[in-house]
Design goal:
Blueprint lengths: L1 E4 L11 H9 L2 E4 L2 H10 L6 E3 L5 H13 L4 E4 L12 H9 L4 E4 L4 H9 L7 E6 L4 H14 L2 E7 L3 H11 L4 E6 L7 E6 H7 L7 E7 L10 H13 L4 H12 L3 H15 L2
Parallel strand pairs: 1-4, 1-5, 2-3, 2-4, 6-7
Antiparallel strand pairs: 7-10, 8-9, 8-10
Length: 277
C-alpha cells in the first residue's frame, strides 16, 4: 500500500494522528528531504527507515519504489510540508501506482492554499483556483494574468521570497486595485499575513524576504473582454501586414490591449518572424 501523507507546514503539532500511526506502521518512508522528515519523526519518537525521493531523483526513485510496492511493502510518501504531488515531488509515483492498480490511500492534513485563502479574508462562494507557483518569466506571468482576469475570481499561488517583490510589481502594474494577501511562513513562529491592494502589497514588500510565501489575489468579476494571447498575436500580425513598423505596432498593442512595453516588443518580434515564414 502507498500512503500519501500530508505533513505540517511548519508547526509540528499540526500533524494528524492518522499520519503518525501510518508513519510508525509502514516499512519505509519516502521523503523529499530526509533531514527535515527526521525532525518530525524525532518529535514523535518514530524510527521507521527513510529513503529520499526529491525532484532530481524522482524518475529513478519512482521505478525503485514501484518495485517495492509490487513486492507488497507498505510505503509512506511525504514531502517537506503539505501534501505530496501538490507543487512538490511525488505525483509521478502516485500516477504510476494508480496506473498499475496498486493500492493507494491519501491521508489529508495541513494545506497552505486553504489556510492562506481563509486567512486572506477573500474566500467567497465562488470558490478559488490554485495555480501552483507563479510563472518565473515575465511573458508567461503576463499571459497567465490575462487568463486570470478573463475568468475573474480568486487565485491562490506559491511564490519564493526572492521573486515576491518582482511578481507583486508586475501584477500591480496591470491590476493595481485588485485585493490580495501575502501569507508568509504559515503556522511558523514568524508567521505574517499582510492584506491590501496589490499596490499596497508592492510597497510593503519592495525587496527579497525570507520564508515560504502563499499569495491570494481576488481579480473580482470576470472580464471576458481581456485579450487572450492569440488575440494579441493576431492583432500584431494584422498591424504588421498593414505596413506599421514594429515600434508602432508594439505601441498600439500597449495602448489598445494593455500589453506592457516589453511584452509587446516580444510579441511583435514573434509576429514578424511568423509573417516571414
Amino acid at each position: 500500500m502507498l500512503y500519501v501523507c500530508a505533513t505540517p507546514l511548519g508547526n509540528l503539532g499540526d500533524v494528524t494522528l492518522r499520519v503518525l500511526e501510518t508513519l510508525r506502521s509502514v516499512e519505509v518512508i519516502a521523503a523529499e528531504d530526509t533531514r527535515r522528515t527526521r525532525k518530525l519523526l524525532a518529535r514523535y519518537d518514530i524510527h521507521t527507515p527513510l529513503t529520499s525521493l526529491f525532484a532530481h531523483n524522482e524518475a529513478q526513485k519512482t521505478e525503485y519504489m514501484i518495485g517495492v510496492l509490487r513486492a507488497g511493502t507498505d510505503v509512506a510518501l511525504v514531502t517537506d510540508a503539505g501534501t505530496p504531488g501538490v507543487s512538490d515531488p511525488g505525483m509521478r509515483l502516485v500516477v504510476r501506482a494508480v496506473a498499475e492498480g496498486l493500492p493507494l490511500a491519501v491521508l489529508p492534513g495541513a494545506s497552505a492554499p486553504v489556510a492562506a485563502l481563509v486567512a486572506s479574508g477573500l474566500a467567497g462562494e465562488g470558490g478559488f483556483r490554485f495555480v501552483g507557483y507563479l510563472p518565473r518569466k515575465s511573458a508567461a506571468l503576463a499571459s497567465a494574468l490575462r487568463e486570470w482576469r478573463r475568468g475573474g475570481g480568486v487565485i491562490v499561488a506559491f511564490e519564493t521570497g526572492k521573486r515576491l517583490a518582482r511578481s507583486l510589481a508586475e501584477l500591480a502594474a496591470r491590476v493595481p486595485e485588485a485585493s490580495g494577501a501575502v501569507c508568509r511562513e504559515l503556522t511558523k513562529l514568524h508567521e505574517e499575513i499582510v492584506r491590501g491592494r496589490l499596490t499596497e502589497l508592492t510597497q510593503r514588500f519592495p525587496g527579497e524576504v525570507k520564508g515560504e510565501i502563499t499569495l491570494v489575489i481576488d481579480f473580482g468579476p470576470a472580464q471576458p473582454g481581456v485579450a487572450t494571447d492569440e488575440d494579441v498575436s493576431a492583432a500584431a500580425r494584422a498591424l504588421l501586414a498593414k505596413g506599421l513598423s514594429k515600434r508602432d505596432t508594439a505601441a498600439a498593442l500597449g495602448i489598445c490591449l494593455g500589453v506592457s512595453h516589453r511584452e509587446a516588443e516580444r510579441i511583435v518580434r514573434e509576429a514578424a518572424g511568423w509573417e516571414r515564414r
